[in-house]
Amino acid sequence: MRWTSWWPHSRQRRLSVVGLDVSADACHWVVLTGSPEQPERVCCAEPLNLPEAWVLHGDVLQPQALGQWLRAALRAAGHRPEAMYLGLDDACVSHHTVTLVAGLSDADVAFQLQAEVQSRGASDAAEVCMDYRLDPQSGPAGEQRYRVQTVPRERVEMWQRVAAAAKLEAVLLEPRSDAALRARGRETFGTLPLAGKTTSKSCGPALGLALRAWHEGEFNFFPYRQKQQQVQRHAWVLGVAVCAMGGAFLAAGLTLVALSVAENKQPNPVEVARAARAQDEAKKNHALATAAQQHNAELTRWKQARQEWQAQSLQWSRVLSQAAQGVWVLSVKQQDTRWTLQGEALTSDHVQHLVQQLKALDIWTQAPELPHMDVVPALSTTGLPVWQFRIEANLKAGV
Predict the structure, then answer these.
(1) What is the CA 364 to chain-centroid distance, rounded?
(2) By the number of CB atoms within 10 A of the CB, which of 114, 158, 200, 292 ranks highest?
(3) Alpha helices in 264-347 (DSSP H)
(4) Residue-wise pLDDT tens digits, 153-202
(5) Are strands 128-134 and 94-101 parallel, antiparallel or unpaired?
(6) How far apart, in Å, are the Cα atoms of 197 and each of 46, 200, 298, 369?
(7) 5 pLDDT band (50/70/90 cuts)?
(8) Are the CB atoms for 87 and 175 separated by under 8 Å?
(9) Which residues, including other chains, have CB under 8 Å from residue 166's CB and lie 6 or more apart?
């Protein structure tokens, strides 16, 4: 006899994404579907004819109108993608290489990289979006080298508005060259079956963008790191809440058991043992909840100290980045609250001016002092003297 199962057959979740490539002379899109493990079909790969009033020379002038048009066009073609992967003209991307001390936390790395890029004369931190990766080339001992890329924030926000109007999740914004290289690795459309109207090799960057849903990549200028931190924080808070609720339920159960035992003049040995186990379990959960609460308080204090330290670092780094000509900073070291700066200057007046600028900051418990300043012969052919100096101070907060 053959039995028929009444349970619904489990179906593997399918992925459907769209890669949109807008260059200076054309616009293409590619819709890919597949399993979570690999792409399986190119549903659409074709150029788009958009009004010039919306897109001109690769710049989106009307993101709201473009996003709504993309949503309508996808639905009319029968496509239902959940996420959008976008490309950015490489001319908009600035490249930097920064070396930092090894062993820093993720928050410290992001802050230090942002301050370093800003000190090199780049735009203000509020005007750019940054992403970074470890450089595979080994740096000096005790240091790590990072490859950093920045793009104007207005372009990132513009593509976020396009995705929001299209009702799609904005997952990726990367340089077009990275997407084109990824597509060439797949031999463009040679390894995937086609189901669209037309295909063209010029759709390669759009295909590379869509393939990012199944491949690791380099840079992404959307705020994915902040989203990951939010998910981790929510998971931690949820764990603490579950632990506390479990302890409360066990404590309530323990109270009921104790009352029941008290009413019985001759308690059952089994119930007594059960009550003892429940009490032990309640004590354990109470200890876990107390430890979690203490950890949360310590984490809050640590974050406050870290924020104060970062605010101080931002203030003195701005002074150094805006220092008058004639001063060169060789190194800045901070150990706990002790702060030391070494540098060179053309004249002693330049050094004194820098000291006065630093003293004006309200971040010191011991104002900057100048324990060492000597003039040495210049190594260049100009014959000008060079003043070597060291500035020392104590910060209000240290890490």
Answers:
(1) 31
(2) 114
(3) 269-321
(4) 899 999 999 999 999 999 999 999 898 888 887 654 556 776 655 566 67
(5) unpaired
(6) 7, 10, 59, 73
(7) very low
(8) yes
(9) 67, 68, 70, 71, 74, 84
